[in-house]
Each structure stands twice: as C-alpha cells, then as structure tokens.
Amino acid sequence: MGIIDESHVVVQPLHNEWYDGKVAAIDMLRLDLVHPVVSGNKWYKLRLNMKHAVESGFKNIVTFGGGYSNHLIATAFTAKMFGLRSVGIVRGKYPVLTPTLVACKEQGMELIFVSQEDYNNNPDSYRGEWAEKLVAHFDEIFIIPEGGANEWGRAGAGLIDRFVDHGYTQVAVSVGTGTTFIGLRNKIGLQQQLLGFVPMKQGTYLNGYIKEHIVAGADANWQLFDAWHFGGFGKWDNELIRFMNDFYRINHIPLDIVYTSKMMYGVRQMLDRYFFTKEDRVLCIHTGGLQGNTSVQSMLTF
C-alpha cells in the first residue's frame, strides 16, 4: 500500500507587491506540489477512502466525474497505487477522449459513459441502484462519490490541518463539493475564519450541506462566496487569463483555470474592498488541478 511523500509541500509567501500591504501577510499552501497526478486536496480526500476499501476487502473502486475531472484521474492513479481496479462513470459523451480521460485509461481505469441528462436524473448516483447496475459486471465494489464527498473524504481533508499554522487569521480554500471545506472547518482553530470560494453560479446553495456535516462546536466563523464564478463552473474569460499570468509573474505560482484562479481573483477583490484588516494573516490553499489548464495552455505564460 503506497503513501505519497508529502515533503514537497511548502507554505510560500506571496510577494508584497501583489497585496499592497493591505494585510500583514498572505501565504499560499502549495498542495499542488504533493504529487504531479494526485495533486492538491485530491490526495487527502482519497487516501482514507482507499485505506478503508483495502481494509474492508473491496477490489474495485467506482467513482464519477466529467471529461476533465481532476477527481477521476486522481482516483485512477490512487486506486492503482493501492492495488485496486477502478471504474469511472463519465458525464457526457466524448467521441474523442479528452487528455484527462486518456490519462485515466493509461492508469487502468475502465470508463463508462452516461448522458448528462441521465446523470442529472440520478443525483444520488454514487449510492443508488442506477450506479450498481452500470457496474454489475464487477464484484466487491466500493463507490466513492464525486469529489470524494463522504465521511472518509471529509476526514482525509481534515488532515490538511497539519499544514495550517494557528497564527493565520483567515484560511481561504476553493469549494467544489464542500468536502475539503468541511474537513478543514472540523479541524482548524475555531478562531480562524474559513473562507470558501465557490466557482459556480449560486454556489452558496452548499451552505446547508456544509452545516449538516460540521461537527458539534465547530459550526462558526465560516463563509462562502460565489461572486467570482466568471460565468459558471469551468467558465473563464480573458480577464481571468490575464490575472493568472500576472499572478504568476509576481509570485511564481501557477494557478488552475477552474478553482484556484477564481479564489485568488476573489481574494484580490476583497483586498481592494478592505474586507481584511492590516493585521490579518491569510493562508490560501492551492488545491492543485493544474492538469485542467490544458485547454487554455497556449494563453498562459507558465
């Protein structure tokens, strides 16, 4: 059973030029450096899921995602590392496989394609009869929800706490399923404000789901923001591309087009609107996913 070496993870200070002295400091937790494939928070959401699957005698991991899903490729790689087979139920039809799906197949993942409509009609697909029928040709299956959104994923995400110094007044993180956000809120100091940046329209619908899974006594001092979605999940424009290039020029940190770029754009806007005080120390968590930049690589300077 393999365990990824976390020694590459660093906390990197951002250059003062970027935040104009409007706070005492902004640092970035470089979880993108954990591993080139299982990057960022994906490793933390998957590691305890895989451990549970092995210890419980499961042989096959089944999970879900789109054609450019960081979660799918991370699951394919991690399952192989733990000696498990993997099956990916993919939203949408792809006559030509995306680079992400090609990489999944290279890691031994079997892909099953379903229509977007069929997928949307089964919101609890990861635990319903629908999914079980799709993978009926496999025995001893363990189904991991999209984004690792289960108890093992949340507990694994809580392990990121080891990198979060108690001196930070705010901790910022991107929010997809809410799994990492919940794991962090359950573990970091309650005096630390947790800021979640949702990259889709009306993303604050996740408030209710998050509240359901925060442990007793930890449901305080957190907030979600969905103002910087750039048109919706996976959407972007030239302004966001310019922002990513400028951020890299100043800080030498690559951002991904789906999650961390929108988070850092939001942080920059909040700095300009004096959301923070000059005494605040902010930690921004880089959740990886740089493989998602493939479609815009020609426009990026890194």
Describe the structure.
The structure is a single chain. This protein is α/β, with parallel strands linked by helices. Helices cover 33% and strands 17% of the residues. It is built from 11 helices and 10 strands. The chain has a 6-stranded mixed sheet. A 4-stranded parallel sheet has the order 5-4-3-6. Helix 2 packs across helix 3 (70-81), helix 2 (41-55) crosses helix 7 and helix 7 packs across helix 8 (179-185). The longest helix is centred in the first third of the chain and has 15 residues, at 41-55. 43% of the residues are buried. The model has no long low-confidence stretch (mean pLDDT 94).
Give a brief description.
By secondary structure, the protein is of the alpha/beta class. The chain has helices at residues 16-19, 41-55, 70-81, 99-106, 116-120, 129-134, 151-157, 179-185, 206-213, 238-251, 260-272, and strands at residues 11-13, 25-30, 60-65, 85-91, 110-114, 141-143, 170-174, 193-197, 222-225, 281-286.
Describe the secondary structure blueprint for this structure:
Blueprint (H helix, E strand, L loop, with lengths): L10 E3 L2 H4 L5 E6 L10 H15 L4 E6 L4 H12 L3 E7 L7 H8 L3 E5 L1 H5 L8 H6 L6 E3 L7 H7 L12 E5 L4 H7 L7 E5 L8 H8 L8 E4 L12 H14 L8 H13 L8 E6 L16
Parallel strand pairs: 2-10, 3-4, 3-6, 4-5, 7-8, 7-10, 8-9
Antiparallel strand pairs: 1-2
Helix pairs in contact: 2-3, 2-7, 3-4, 7-8
